[in-house]
User: Fold Aminoglycoside N(6')acetyltransferase from Legionella erythra.
Amino acid sequence: MNLFENSLIHSSKISDTILGLVSNYLGIIWMIKVTKNEFRFCFKPVNKSQHELILGWIHQPHINEWLHGEGLSNTIKDIDQFLNDGEPWATHWIAYDNETPFAYLITSEIEKSEEYPDDAVTLDLFICRLDYIGKGLSVQMIHEFILSQFSNAKIVLIDPEISNERAVHVYKKAGFEIIGEFIASWHPVPHYKMQLCIEMLKNKKC
Assistant:
């Protein structure tokens, strides 16, 4: 084999290596792009500029049917604490469809105990924009919120009123299971305690 042939072979190997590296790079970029665009919705904590938006949302009749009295008062106070560097008991979120804010979510972490030895989070949520109600988006929103914000947690708990049949149906469809009943201190009517195992949700999405 002469020097020219050897150079051609060497150049061919280099080209193959470069093509392989480019292919791997493009594959990684594609994976990042898919991961980035995997979810329709995005979620951000409420900021001060959105205070009036949230207050307007939670005073709508379809929200006040289920959030009222002491529960509403406590929520308003906690929003103030959250936005003014106080000591809130919850984190307050807004869900966006592209750039459109349409839903309000509330989460809080549960201290580890004998009942909940692993990381557990409570969730409450409201579809606030009227033109987003009845679109069948709640289950997708719940799944995307949990997987994007609480993928390292173990359990999510939610506690709808038993009479809120629409919400209970949605939560069951999202994978929550009824694990008990209780009378809420902030609104003395029967509530369900419902639980979702995040690992099961992850496996379902695989």
